[in-house]
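Exercise 7.
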Amino acid sequence: MTEENFRVAQLLLQGYKCSHVMIQIGLDAQEKSNPDLLRAMSGLASGMCNGLVCGTLSGGCCLIGLYAGMDGDNHGEHPRLPLMLEEYVDWFRDEYSPRYGGINCAQIIEGKAELRVERCPGLILEAVLKVKEILEANGFELDGRSGAEQF
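Solution. The predicted structure, written as tokens, is:
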């Protein structure tokens, strides 16, 4: 079991939902705690609690933004942020639309809560690994903000 696999499983067992897991992985890597951000991620969980866009998709975009987005004080957006987000969204759509008929939470779990337990942990893990790949390809490391000086 990989470190990422273990951490995803651990967070899910603690009651974290898809979007929470995505952002907590980044906070862990940066050795940060941000209860307000984690609380805000609740608005994206379970397809915005309405079965809409998968919280892993929107949470992954937030995770990329945690590294490459503007911070209001010191840095603007990384110039490659739109391309990183496009790559992630395209990957997610190409990976999961054929499998589940779309990228909405309701499509992925077919409206059946028991499918959440079966499908979501693997989907979240794959998404974490894809975000990590995208960030690293653009000069970021999950354990820091290298690449930040580029924007």
